[in-house]
Fold Secreted protein.
Amino acid sequence: MRTNTQISVRSGLIAAAAALPLTLAAPSVAADNGITVTSTGSTVSVNTAACPGGGNASLLSSGLTTFTQGRQAVLAVGATNQTAAWSNVSPGAYTVIVNCNDGRNVGSQPVTVTLTPTLSTTNSPALGVRGGIGGGIKDYGTLTMVGGGVMVAAALGGGAWYIRRRNTHHRT
């Protein structure tokens, strides 16, 4: 006899397994000292409201420790926030440091860049898979597929009728 507890546990495991790809595909976000660092694909961006007069941000890879050692970007000054972004960042662990133009060091924030695989149609063959006989190279319409299904069903029904009829002659 099944209990509701077993069903609940199984349902929870299925829900967790279904949510796993969504959590892995979500962008990495970290916030500290008024700095928000976001990693989406190979792009890292920083957002802060701590430098109203503008400033610079630096993206440091592992092993680098000072502001001038990393890839630097000027903070774009907005109405309330200042932003900077780096593109084509390789996967790995990084640290973002923000310095204001008035000499203040706002702080640093770690970020991890992970590339999620994307589907690309540019690498697929122009005419599809060319293996087997027939179906791999042409996209057939609904009518053709229904006709084929009817023919398969008729063949199965005819075969079953023939075998049944053949076996009835030996019973007499």
